[in-house]
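Side project, low priority. Logging it here so it doesn't get lost.
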Amino acid sequence: MGMESWKVNNKVKIILSRNWVNVPGLLVNTVKDTVCIKGDLAFMGDKVDGHNELTVSSQLRKVEREILALRDVRHVDWRIIGWQKKKNRWERKGFKPSESEEKKE
């Protein structure tokens, strides 16, 4: 890993921390113009409800926008345990909505 990758990784970790993401549970790597974030997603404090799909989706979109605003970063590869990105929405993997949640849609 070159010095530039190390700097990008640290900037990404700062962005994650600023957005209440528990950084020690994640592995952040940078290869060329792609940042890869792997691991178990958890939030610190009570600012973000990690069980609410809309809240998590909104927070991750915000984090991704901030990361993509960094110089020399073109892509963010998310490999988050229990979550998957479909287009611009985040969904829980293997989660079936309850009947009351389906009626809301």
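Brief comment: The domain at 3-104 is CATH 3.30.70.2210 (Alpha-Beta Plaits).
Revisit when time allows.
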